[in-house]
User: Fold Endonuclease V family protein, putative isoform 1 from Theobroma cacao.
Amino acid sequence: MEGVNEKENEEVEAQKHSGPSELGKWAEIQDMLKKRVITEDDFPWRLPSLQSQHQQLRYVGGVDVSVSKEDPSMACGSLVVLDLHHALRLVYQCHTVLTLDVPYVPGFLAFREAPILVHLLEKMKSTASPFYPQVLMVDGNGLLHPRGFGLASHLGVLANLPTIGIGKNLHHVDGLTRSGVKELLEAEENRTKDLITLRGSSGFIWGVAMRSTQSSLKPLFVSIGHRISLDTAIKVVKMTCKFRVPEPIRQADIRSRKHLRKHQIGRLE
DNA sequence: GCGACAG
DNA sequence: ATCTTGTCGC
Assistant:
């Protein structure tokens, strides 16, 4: 009977940023699209192995959006594809500079970034490039999200592509907190483990905290995006980690930054 | 009531 | 997210 729940708080918050009840509508859209998420392996390829007469995973994509600090309405979205068969060599990259009007609101990142990324994917698909990604890594969470539908899942459903969510920070959900996870990682029993299952107080497994490199104390937060199981997602992430951040994400990040700077200098007066 | 809150 | 060079160490 107390009408003051989290949803309403979000709506109040929304009006400060995106107009009346915007967040409520966004949450409805998320709940709707979430019904289409597939949380098991759903693709024709297999993980790379010595002998396999099946199609193998080879082209792994990564996406990122960079924003200019001096002009927060200016952004650059990037899509890169790396070749798993050739030491993660870059085989495709595409960038688009545009103005952003949608603000960043925690829990609603997709409404800010997904349209840009969908555009990049559609553009690539229309060229019939042989490098179209078999799986896409996204800088943002998948199931690890207040409503179980973060950017990686959102993009996966819209593009109908297997996606993996990669968070560099934990988004608090279901009793999981940064300090709590930090203590888990430092617990004696987990000292040497590189994977910590993120089980919330509800019992649901939201993803894993992963030490992607031996030298990295700070974990990566991996979750299912769409059309892939958590186990497979973890394996793909491990295969692409030269440094803490997996190469597809890292390359997209580096290149979108660089592209944005170049674009700004080009139109500087 | 206050704080927390992916990028 | 963004501002940013050098620097400490394997």
Observations:
- The first strand of chain A starts at residue 59 and ends at 67.
- The CA atoms of residues 170 and 178 of chain A lie 6 Å apart.
- Residues 64-65, 67, 104-107, 109, 112-113, 139-141, 144-146, 150-151, 165-173, 177-178, 221 of chain A lie near DNA strand B (CB under 10 Å from a C1').
